[in-house]
Amino acid sequence: MHSKQESLKLMSVGIVAHGYIAIGVVSKGVISIGTVSMGVVSIGIVSMGLISVGVVSMGLAIIGVSGMGLFELYLLKSASAFIHMNMPEVNMHIH
Hints:
Elements: E1 9-15, E2 21-27, E3 31-36, E4 40-46, E5 50-56, E6 60-66, E7 70-75, E8 81-86, E9 91-94
Antiparallel strand pairs: 1-2, 3-4, 4-5, 5-6, 6-7, 7-8, 8-9
């Protein structure tokens, strides 16, 4: 029995496109790097502000920056762009 309650492990699973799966494990603000086949690379950095950057082949790029304000940018190969900004005073949805 482990009665040690240290850092909670946050497991985030993201499904991108064409079966691309990126799994990152965050523990008390550490750096999680996940690499998937087909040239899928996802890098997540958790600190006082959450910064996650993912680069996928086929022109698919996912950039997420979460700090005092949440900023997520999704750029797809099909020229589709989805920008989601969530700030204490600003809440925008551009699709």
